[in-house]
Amino acid sequence: MSSGPENASTSIAACWQTFLVRLERELGAETVDRWARSLVVKTGNGPKLTLEAKDSFQALWFEEHLRPRLSGLVDPLGASIQVTLQVAGKASRGKSVSKGIPRSSKFDPSQFSLTFPEIDTSCTFERYLTLPDNEIVIKLFNEMCSYLAGERLKNLSSVVVPSGEGQRIPPPNPLYLCGPSGSGKTHLLTAAAIRLRQAGLTVIMANSDLFTEHVVRAIRAGEMSTFRRLWRTVDALLVDDVHCLARKSTTQEEFFHTFNSLHVAGKQIILSANCLPQQLQFIEPRLVSRFEWGVVLPLHSIPRKQFPDLLDKKAHHLNFSLSQKLAHFLAETFASTPKACVHALEVLIRRLSVFKNRGNASAASMTLSQVRDLLADLMEEEQQQALTPDKIINVTAESYGIKREDLIGRSQSREFVLPRQVAMFLIRKHLKAPFMKIGDLFKKNHSTVMSAIRQVEKLIPDSSSDVGSSLASIEIRLSELGK
Fold first, then answer.
1. In whole angstroms, what is the distance from residue 169 CA to residue 340 CA?
2. What is residue 99's predicted lDDT score, i.e. its pLDDT?
3. pLDDT tens by residue, 78-94
4. CB of 386 within 8 A of CB of 336?
5. Architecture of domain 4-101 in CATH?
6. In what helix (H) or strand (E) does residue 84 lie, and over which residues does it extend?
7. Over pLDDT 90: what percentage of the chain?
8. At a CB cut-off of 8 Å and minimum separation 6, what does 272 contact?
9. Which of 58, 178, 331, 434 is the most exposed place for a label (fewest CB within 10 A)?
């Protein structure tokens, strides 16, 4: 027969489980499973319960989200259960788990601050090279900025807003901008931030890595209230590269609540990523679903043939005289992404300035050979980052979970045939390689290569096939090579 203390322990543990079930209705089953149900029940004697968190982040979440709700945790006799939380073997009673949170012994709360880098004021809408495919994106961004600026004027009692201003339709929220590296996502987010700040709105413009950094610093300093007050009391939040939140569970949890807080308050949220929301990997489904609440705006990258136009526009704003010959040289040499091309021009202008100040010939009289010397390091880096058939084959094999040898081998198993066809398709698409050269890589004749590429093109729009999503995933990984 069980002793009294053992019965009491079992009873308290059962009360805890019942409490968690009730909590699911408030916080959701996924949240409770991840943060609360994973707490280890160590003991439960009398009206007392001891729990153990796996790390300081889970302990912090407990103190902030569960501790205030523990009044609903009572034993079968109706007495409140006293909960003690342990972190890494160190017990903490009451409402503090500071012993379990990484913290500098020299930390001074008065010195805590969260800062943001200065934004690039040259990234305006006027300086963005707009492609016909991207015109709808630019139009929507401009309308969004005009609407928010107009709403602010309406809220200023001393300003009379012209009739009809209040009839405009609110912009979708959030705006989710997606596109490959170099398509101008950061430029457009920055342009929007500049426009909104000029209208007097409070705006945060940052990338997801900075959000993560702020979360970590605030946790270590015990200043999460400061963090939340900063990030959740703005008129507009613009976050670049949200795909970089992948695998960061604590950051995703905080971003989820930040997003909800701003969205409920009717504040504008603008996000960017290198892929569609449904293609995000290692991001919580509840975040992905929120990213799809508003409008997803695909942003198309500038084709290589228009790189000289992009360089000409950039040079014009930098007051630099760019010859057509030099523009085409840079466009052909730094053809990996528009960003690489523009970066090469900016570096060249800085180095030409030094070249000129040293008494050498003027920039206009420089030969391409001299330009090559000035950009030798960048040209070497570009060559290292450039896509090659080998890189495409390796990434494709890894994505499908097969060996490179099997992908380029002769096996006719579908496990290997489809990845092989996809690799052929990507080599043709990105490198414009002749069919015969692609055939040589896979020991196939050119007609087999042509047939394989046609097969992939046929499968891409087929909803019953996963080729489209697999290609998107591989494209993302290829775009990240060399970063």
1. 38
2. 33
3. 677 788 888 755 544 34
4. yes
5. 2-Layer Sandwich (3.30)
6. strand 82-87
7. 25
8. 176, 177, 178, 179, 185, 186, 188, 189, 239, 240, 241, 242
9. 434
